[in-house]
Design brief:
With 380 residues, this protein is an alpha+beta fold. It folds into 2 domains: 113 residues, Glucose Permease (Domain IIA); 171 residues, Orthogonal Bundle (Lysozyme). Helix content is 37%, strand content 15%. Strands 1, 2, 4, 5, 6, 8, 11 and 12 form an 8-stranded antiparallel β-sheet that branches. Strands 3-9-7 form a 3-stranded antiparallel β-sheet, with no helix packed on it. The protein has a two-stranded antiparallel ribbon with strand order 10-13. Strand 4 and strand 5 form a beta hairpin. Helix 7 crosses helix 10 and helix 10 crosses helix 12. The chain is elongated. The relative contact order is 0.12. The structure holds zinc ion. The site of zinc ion has 7 residues, from loops.
Length: 380
């Protein structure tokens, strides 16, 4: 058996089935992020783009009728429709989708069902190109960058980004959602510190299942956060007004230039400038429509202390200060359009494919159309 990533080691072998049922639908090759991925088998690229739990995914139609999946990539090197041969550069190893630690998940499907990929990785002497001729190393003592202690589904995204994403998809978690639990994790891989993922047939149909599970978990975390926040609120209630009035973060029209224009455009689009706005579906609050779960941490970051939801809603200056701080960070990191994208769909959205950004999000506009509208309003 040979590896489509040079020097990679097998961190998780094919077991049949899917992660959610204790199986594994492909072979995982652990390798540093950015390592080159070579096609194991020739054929034609079917699609290149976001594959839900598979992260950035390239699907290749093999000449024998099977389909190859190359998952969790950081970047692509081919386009849909392109003819490739064994050994062609396909893309680069990453950690996108439901994945812990950078690795390639290689999967082969026959009639839509996963089949053992090993026959597709046996170098037969006829293939050309750079498919690694070194036998793939078996076993996995590969340490994930994150330490590999948490199940994939937790590490997949920043909780806040996940909620923003749900919101962007018009899937705002239902109020009082169920507590965490019931989701399966690749506990074995995680415990062994091996890169792995929760690739699953249902999840391959979309991110929904995974995100709903996550949203339930996030709800539970938020409930804890809210309880903590309430207890903190008494302690900070006294200092809040003083800090606001003298705080250097206080906005009151502090931001100028392009950042100021961006902030004004986002406020106008999100709420029409209504500081008491509440979104009945998503629960987002205030003039900038910030998710309740973000208020405590974002206010802490902007002001040095956490504020409650009611304090937040009652105080326009507070909202300005928090939005200005957060948007300022995004703006400096990503520029105006990247900041608008992060505001709408979370910082994780910066890594999404064009296709994902162009898709309409349920009853909500696509990420790209949101960004375009913000830039137009801001005159940027
Ligand atoms: Zn895998």
């Amino acid at each position: 058996m040979y590896s489509p990533v040079k020097g990679a080691r097998v961190s998780s072998r094919y077991l049949g089935g899917f992660r959610s049922t204790g199986g594994h639908s492909g072979i995982d090759f652990a390798a540093p992020a950015g390592s080159k991925i070579y096609a194991a088998v020739g054929g034609r690229v079917i699609s290149v783009g976001w594959g839900g739990a598979y992260g950035n995914l390239t699907k290749v139609q093999h000449d024998d009728g099977t389909v190859g999946y190359y998952a969790h990539q950081s970047r692509f090197a081919v386009k849909a429709g392109q003819r490739i041969s064994a050994g062609s550069l396909l893309g680069f190893v990453g950690n996108t989708g439901n994945s812990t630690g950078s690795h390639l998940h290689f999967e082969v499907r026959r009639n839509g069902k996963p089949t053992d990929p090993i026959p597709f990785l046996n170098f037969d002497g006829k293939r050309t190109g750079s498919l690694s001729k070194e036998p793939a190393k078996q076993g996995g003592s590969f340490a994930t960058p994150q330490g590999g202690m948490l199940p994939d589904i937790i590490q997949m995204t920043d909780p806040n980004d996940t909620l923003a994403m749900l919101e962007a998809q018009g899937m705002g978690a239902s109020p009082g959602g169920k507590a965490a639990g019931g989701f399966s994790t690749p506990a074995l891989d995680a415990a062994a510190g091996r890169p792995s993922e929760q690739t699953d047939l249902e999840q391959s149909l979309g991110r929904e299942a995974g995100l709903i599970q996550q949203s339930q978990m996030m709800k539970a975390m938020q409930a804890q956060q809210a309880a903590y926040q309430t207890s903190m609120m008494q302690a900070t209630a006294q200092q809040a007004p003083a800090a606001i009035s003298q705080g250097s973060h206080s906005s009151g029209g502090g931001a100028s230039g392009d950042l100021g224009k961006l902030i004004n455009a986002i406020r106008a689009k999100e709420s029409g400038g209504s500081y008491s706005a509440r979104n009945r579906h998503s629960g987002a609050l205030g003039a900038y429509q910030i998710m309740p779960g973000n208020i405590a941490s974002w206010s802490k970051a902007a002001l040095g202390y956490s504020v409650s939801q009611s304090q937040f809603l009652a105080n326009p200056k507070l909202q300005d200060a928090i939005a200005q701080h957060r948007l300022g960070q995004y703006f400096r990191k990503y520029g105006a359009s990247g900041a608008a994208l992060a505001w709408y769909a979370g910082e994780g959205a910066l890594k999404y494919s064009e296709g994902a950004r162009n898709r309409k999000q349920g009853s909500y506009p696509s990420m790209n159309s949101y960004v375009q509208d913000i830039l137009r309003r801001a005159g940027l």
